[in-house]
Amino acid sequence: MQWWRPLALGLAAVALSAGCGLAQTMTFAERVTMCSACHGEDGNSKLENIPSLAGQPAFFVLNQLFLMREGVRKVETMAPIVKDLKDGDLDALSKHFAGLAPKRSDEKIDPVLAKRGEEIATARRCVSCHAPNLVGADQIPRIAKQRIDFMIKSMKAYRDNPPPGADTAMSANVIGASDADLVALAHYAASK
Ligand code: HEC
Ligand code: HEC
Fold first, then answer.
1. Average of pLDDT values for 108-131?
2. Which protein residue's CA is at the shortest distance from atom 42 of ligand 2?
3. Which residue, judged by its Cα, is nearest atom 24 of ligand 1?
């Protein structure tokens, strides 16, 4: 799918809701459709650098949405969407995405890189926080089956320039990792 199509859809939805004051009156299903324009119809993203949400721990999603609504984690394209959501909306959206089944992305997973990534992940004890099989828990995200491009981008950010609101526990874990190590780790997590 071309990247601009869902983006345009998402932005159109935002413009519509902002223009007509619909944000308050949107139904839950309409909200989910808006999120899905970017994050994938079944919560599994098909778009570059946009994370999948399917199967994320509900508390992780809730926490991130809260940080975005309060302007701590800055995601430009999402800011207008989350700004008027009530706590109950955040909660319902989190539970919805947590309940969807995660699927591998259609990016090409290199088995050699994945194998190398597994060794690095073992040495760096990623499972000590991301849980066995990397499925996440509480405020810690699932990285199993996450998109490769998004994981590389976010790990580089944790390593080089942790964004506001980012958990420092994560940054400490990628210090000293080379770009090649991060690529291998992403292929491994995506393959799970
Ligand atoms: C216009 C596209 C777009 C729309 C619409 C959108 N998002 Fe996002 N979302 C993004 C992008 C891009 C990121 C990743 C930002 C980054 O690189 O940190 C993101 C990140 C997230 C994250 C953090 C996930 C993680 O693994 O770090 C959550 C949770 C999230 N979005 C939930 C939602 C929900 C719920 C909705 C609907 C209310 C929604 N998004 C609508 C583009 C969008
Ligand atoms: C000490 C606990 C801890 C360890 C160990 C850890 N992480 Fe994390 N990781 C986190 C937390 C917490 C977050 C969420 C960060 C936030 O809220 O800003 C995270 C976020 C991530 C993300 C972004 C996912 C998303 O959806 O936004 C990736 C990718 C990631 N970790 C990969 C790894 C890899 C690979 C390893 C092993 C090299 C690792 N982590 C080790 C705690 C940890």
1. 97
2. 170
3. 51
